[in-house]
Design goal:
The chain is mainly beta and about 150 residues long. Helices cover about 15% and strands about 50% of the residues. A 5-stranded antiparallel sheet has the order 1-2-4-8-6. A hairpin with a 6-residue loop joins strand 9 (about 105-115) and strand 10.
Length: about 150
Amino acid sequence: MKKILIALFLMLFFPYVFASESVTYFDEVRVDLIKIDPSPVEAGQITDVWFEVYNIANEDLSDLEFKVVEKFPFSSESPTVKIKNLLSGEKKKIKFSVYVDENIEEGAYDLYLQYKSKRTEKITSYSFELNVKKTSMGTTLIEVKLNPKIVEP
């Protein structure tokens, strides 16, 4: 009975802990990390990181600017995404393509996202933890050829 209660507690508690790690609140918006592709993140590869931006202000927002801070091991050719208008209560998805340096060890690394508010003129930064795996240099199947033969009884 005790094991069942512990299992139920873990099933109910842990999803909220993991979900809260991917959410951050700025003054006017809430940003959720919604998708990483591929997952897990691989060293030496480009990874698409998707966020969902919610307007939690009581007014419409314009000229929102989000930027991935280029800090080892992450870099991006297009580190800035702008949202022209975001109505009160509206949400929009934004995507960053991030290169992960090939010369890193496996582990957890912080990806920093900055938000620049036109209304308050503040720049706020928040980190999202990404787990990075090393890619193996093993054999990869590139092509398969089938040469069927007729089998006679």
